[in-house]
Amino acid sequence: MRKFYVLVLFLIGFQSVVIAQQKKITVAEIYSGAFSTQGLDVLRSMNNGRQYTVLNFDPARKVSTIDKYDYKTLEKVETIVSSDALEGVPYFSSYEFSNDESKVLLATEVESIFRRSTLGIFYVLDIKTKELVKIDEMKIQEPALSPNGEKVAYVRDNNLYVMDLTTGNTQQITKDGKKNEIINGITDWVYEEEFAFVRAFAWNSNGTKIAFLRFDETKVPEFSMDLYGTEKYPSQNVFKYPKAGEDNAIVRLYLLDVASGTISGVDLGNPYYIPRIKWMNNPNYLSVQTINRHQNDLRLHEVNANTKAVRLLLQETDEAYVDITDDLTFLADDSFIWTSEKDGWNHIYLYNSNGELMNQITKGQWEVTRYYGYDQNEDKVYYQSTENGAINRGVYSVESDGKNKRDLAIAEGTNSASFSADFSYFINTFSNATTPPVYTLHKALSGKKLKDIKDNTALLEKMEGYVLNPREFSTININGNDLNMYIIKPQDFDASKKYPLLMYQYSGPGSQSVSNTWYSARDYWHQVLVAEGYIVACVDGRGTGFRGRDFKKTTYLNLVKYETEDQIAAAKKLSERPYIDAARTGIWGWSFGGHMATNSLLKGNDTFEMAIAVAPVTSWRFYDTIYTERFMRTPEENPSGYDDNSPFNYPELLKGDFLLIHGSGDDNVHVQNTMRMIEALVQANKQFEWAIYPDKNHGIYGGNTRIHLFNKMTNFVKEHL
């Protein structure tokens, strides 16, 4: 793997961006969307592989349409449905076709619950007859059409229902669902957040059976948040949240025979977590993944839906933990493709239907970062990887025997592909540190570019009027590791002068902050500071991703210990550079990064003079079971791992200036973390600044909130660094 990265700082025609010093970027411009990139609407390939659909919305008329386009020409073919043609139906915000594309599910009046979960009013439209059916008068969750589009399953009030679209009859499948006790067919809070799915039921391939999960939350402790709102009295949001070491929901797998309504339990040997269920192509067989509480023993089971017999197909173990992914793909004969880190790097493997390894498809000291799918007709596996360096992404194909690998899109930067259903075409999205997203159409087999679709030339032209300073990519040797880094210097940089340094990081397990991609809002804010004469740097330390299994898992059992050591050491090493003012060094981060900023300021009090922590964890004892125990085991097993790196256990170490920020409505990293840190600092008689944003969740946004937040942060940096 390449150890050093040098980015060409200027593209032809881009020099004017850094030469024309007309305006400085402002926080208000950033968070009002002034520098937003123009993207492609989410497209969905149609079964024929030649066409795709896009959801378009006209804000002036409040009309949404599902429009069909041709891959080859990119021209619109037809409008499949328009909301203004549906009597009594407001505009829809998402859609889903039945497998045969004869019907479409339309979502309206959608409201968020947590990060991924929503409630909404849903309709099913028969595309040919234009018959429209409202699924339920109440708001429901996660409706899913049967493969032939004749039925729809959904969840309401924690119970599973099935509606027959032909007769209009609805059958309530489960009746024991109850808030904060029993959930059928959708996940609880911690599964949604950490295993990243909400719909916990699935139709088999011929629509005769539904597999679903049941969560018994009875013994899970409750967490409550005050919601201040606008009324005379605040309300409370009370939900089940298992903090590290506490009881999780008891999860069980059930099978519904749709015709008879019979429900049968499946004995999986008392699994602790069931993070994935997926039907095979054979309608009588279901795959189920289970993992133990330590999350270091992942098992893939085959369930015979008729006999309920369970067979172990594959087992993955690790001394630390095994990640859960969505990369499982069943081929026509139910052989399957799977990704694994078992050789030290994330790669693609092929197994037969009995779970016997047939071949390791990809190999090398680089990571497969996305598995796109398998074209069985051409015997091509499509994937994205770091073969062009850990901060870059390329798109590739290879045959199932690991031979005849082809580069499809590998321009230096980040390439990401969206394939047609039959893998005839893909749309590539490319960006790098000096190029905003560019969208192009390619032939999948060869990678040949067929045409340009959209670029962001207008944004580049707009940015010519602003000060914009390039990220310089390199590596820095810290604690025996060459760590990926970028540094941003002021436009009029003079190596003979001294500049204050602000470091940014996140550092969570498997994450990456140093990447060759276009700007995020965070990057624009860094430009605000650089324009004021600050140097901004970011270093991805131990525990971050895409450098192999061992590099990522070196922080196991000691979250933020080694990561903090790396940030402190990196700051010290950067301060040795003649143009860095060693007496003016700051650090900031959000969430895991907020924890890191706090720890760095305290444990590195001879290095850092200032820190900003937004929505920080301050004790892993307060965070959820699945995430925390994956990396730390339980507090009972690893008390020192939890407490030795919890900053409210050593508030007396604070010497520098500290700004602590949180949203009171954060259901993820609870404001309890910040309140405990505040109390510790008060009792240690340490002065600091803090801000609480009422009712704001982990993202701390809404209205002018982000503008206020980042102006506060900007002022703090300018006053204290």
From TrEMBL:
Pfam families under this entry? DPPIV_N, Peptidase_S9
Q: Which domain of life is it from?
A: Bacteria
Q: Where is the Dipeptidylpeptidase IV N-terminal domain?
A: 98-437
Q: Fetch the Gene3D superfamilies from UniProt.
A: alpha/beta hydrolase (3.40.50.1820), Dipeptidylpeptidase IV, N-terminal domain (2.140.10.30)
InterPro entries xrefs: AB_hydrolase_fold, Peptidase_S9_cat, Peptidase_S9B_N, Serine_Prot_S9B/DPPIV
Tell me the ranges covered by the Peptidase S9 prolyl oligopeptidase catalytic domain, including all copies. 527-721
Protein name in UniProt = S9 family peptidase
